[in-house]
Write a structure and sequence with these properties.
Largest sheet: 8 strands, mixed
Strand content: 15-25%
Number of strands: 19
Oligomer: single chain
């Protein structure tokens, strides 16, 4: 979460899609009467329509008055659109259509405004984060508000703007959340500002949230579609999603409850081989109510409070409502065994990282915990996790975290549990 927030809804819950994307969808094709109620939907086409998707879309515009926004061709086949409400049932009955799902609001997951890298022993990893030298040759996608492309501490190699279709190459961050996340993952080890878990790694800015830290399912699908197409040629094996919204896991990759985001995530994970690391949410509740955190295919990250980068007690700094080395009081958590099986913890309180236009800023949230784990996954994929599937990477990170002595952890982890709340073991970058 940003210092607050998430995807189908993060910790700060703004419900609007970007003005640019909204304006695009509001204009354009004709068909519906001006006074007729309309809604924003994701139309998923049947695989049999893949080779003629554009023709099908044109027919839907002509026959049902849909106004097409994003087109998806990789993570799934379909499009986002404004649709007259009177035509939704007819669209669903079209044999070329597999599903018509609402285009739901999503938000960045920052709760409030790098001891974290120190706490997970990034300085003891093969990257030796903080020694002032070295770059890790790997690539990580940051699916967020964008990244400050001019930041001296960040190696931004490319990306996509899924907020404004008319400017696909303008993936700069005009919020600050994505830039903060990016710094925790991969800030250069150059003596400036902060250092990340995989210093100097190539970052790909997948901008799906706007200046307000919010977006919608269609924006997220655009980003996942880009990732499904580009992960292999660009060498992207890990991605961070510090965002979220309300939803649930149907246990069937979204095909039972017609969830296009879940379907796309399964394609990215299972077919493109990308380990997706996501924030648990900042609602202090069961993460099963939030997506993508609830999806079994991702590695979900809860937040632990740490104020000095070391195990044991220390005085609170920016957030006095938390105690050192305890589960963050805002963090969502797993309850059921299925969700516990893909949950791990990361430092998420008073995390200092890169800010837009240089220097640093301190944020708190599971959005800040998640990139510690994404960076660790990327680091492991350059070493002991090389050649592993995402499911194997998740299992290894969780097993290696659990193998650390109890003194490494925090109050609330499985060695010192809180009844009814599973936060997972603290990720350990030091072994990679």
């Amino acid at each position: 979460m940003v210092g607050r927030g998430r995807v189908a809804r993060p910790a700060y819950r703004l419900a609007a899609v970007s003005a640019a994307a909204g304006a695009l969808l509001a204009g354009g094709l004709t068909g519906a009467k001006a006074a007729e109620p309309e809604g924003r939907y994701i139309v998923v086409l049947d695989e049999s329509a893949r080779g003629r998707a554009e023709t099908v879309e044109q027919g839907h515009g002509r026959d049902h008055g849909v106004r097409v926004g994003f087109r998806y061709r990789h993570a799934l086949v379909g499009y986002s659109a404004v649709v007259p409400e009177s035509q939704v049932a007819a669209l669903r009955a079209d044999p070329n259509v597999k599903a018509v799902a609402p285009d739901l609001p999503v938000h960045a997951t920052r709760q409030v405004l790098p001891t974290g890298v120190d706490r997970i022993q990034g300085d003891a990893s093969s990257a030796l984060s903080g020694n002032g030298t070295g770059t890790v040759d790997t690539a990580v996608a940051i699916i967020d508000t964008g990244i400050d492309t001019g930041h001296r501490d960040l190696n931004v190699a490319g990306g996509i703007n899924c907020v404004n279709l008319s400017r696909p190459d303008d993936y700069r961050d005009n919020n600050g959340h994505g830039t903060h996340v990016a710094g925790t993952v991969a800030a250069r080890d150059n003596g400036d500002d902060v250092v990340g878990v995989v210093p100097g790694a190539r970052l790909y800015s997948v901008k799906v949230l706007g200046a307000s830290g919010s977006g919608s399912t269609s924006n997220i699908l655009c980003g996942l579609d880009w990732l499904a197409q580009n992960a292999a040629p660009l060498g992207i094996k890990a991605a961070n999603m510090s965002l979220g919204g309300d939803g649930a896991d149907d246990g069937n990759c979204g095909f039972t409850n017609n969830d296009p985001e879940h379907q796309a995530i399964c394609r990215v994970v299972n077919d493109a081989g990308v380990t997706l690391v996501v924030a648990a949410g900042n609602s202090s509740d069961d993460l099963a109510h939030h997506t993508p955190a609830a999806f079994d295919e991702v590695l979900t990250v809860t937040a632990a409070a740490d104020f000095d980068g070391q195990p044991g007690g220390a005085a609170a700094t920016c957030r006095t409502s938390n105690q050192d080395d305890t589960a963050a009081n805002f963090s969502s958590f797993a309850v059921g065994a299925a969700d516990a099986a893909h949950t791990i913890a990361g430092p998420g309180v008073c995390i200092r990282s890169t800010r837009n236009h240089g220097t640093t800023v301190v944020f708190s949230g599971t959005s800040m915990a998640s990139p510690h784990v994404a960076g660790t996954a990327a680091l492991c994929l350059t070493g002991p996790c090389a050649g592993m599937t995402p499911a194997q990477v998740i299992a290894k990170l969780r097993a290696d975290a659990a193998a650390q002595p109890a003194s490494y952890g925090f109050a609330g982890d499985p060695n010192a549990p809180v009844a009814g709340r599973y936060y997972g073991h603290l990720v350990h970058a030091g072994g990679y």
